[in-house]
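Subject: for your reference before the review

Hello V.,

The reviewers asked for a structural picture of the protein, and I figured it would be easier to keep everything in one thread rather than splitting it across files. Below is the amino acid sequence we used in the manuscript, unchanged from the supplementary table.
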Amino acid sequence: MIGGDVVNWAQHALFEGAVIWDVCTLAAQHPRWGVPRLHWRLQRDGWLVNYKRVERLYRLEGLAVPRVPRPIAVGPNETWSLDFVSDQLASGRRFRISSKRRYTARADGGTQRSQYCRGTPR
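And here is what came back from the structure prediction:
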């Protein structure tokens, strides 16, 4: 005779496998979705699953939201900054510009020069 613990464990393993399958398929369909949105979607689809379980299965499968690549520094002591500037024209129309700025330290004592990649140089 099979004990109740064995039956419960087998049902748990089947449930876990089905949740893993759904998490992987949803992550493949929507690669920019993270754990919170996947958990929301699983609940909407009828799964009664804990957020921490979804997070654990997400990490166990090696899934991750792709990161946006950062600019690579070309030389030593080089940094980048990104800024959003907004203003309003005389006609009342608003506009917004994103500017990327590169700072490089010179070898003559750390004087910094800056170069705008967009907009007017200062």
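For the response letter, the relevant points are probably these. The CA atoms of residues 90 and 96 lie 15 Å apart. The radius of gyration is 26 Å.

Happy to draft the paragraph if you're swamped.

O.
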